[in-house]
Write a structure and sequence with these properties.
This protein is of the alpha+beta class.
């Protein structure tokens, strides 16, 4: 049973590494828990720098400030 959980988590982590999520947010401070429920990771709080984006060190989700993406497309 424990081995199945490890394999499932490994597959999920590999999927995130291959196709990380990009999430637009409205605040410079965000939290991430991997979004996988029990297969996620511990919740971490991340603070964006001057480049208006931050990447979760666990699952590689990228959080981008909405105003920053609007400026790039204009």
């Amino acid at each position: 049973m424990l081995e199945k959980q490890r394999q499932s988590r490994k597959k999920m982590n590999q999927a995130h590494a291959d196709n990380p999520d990009i999430i637009e947010v409205e605040d410079h401070k965000v939290s991430c828990d991997g979004g996988g429920g029990a297969l996620g990771h511990p919740r971490v709080w991340l603070e964006m720098g001057e480049d208006h984006k931050v990447t979760c060190p666990y699952c590689d989700r990228e959080f981008v400030l909405k105003s920053a993406t609007a400026q790039k497309s204009a």
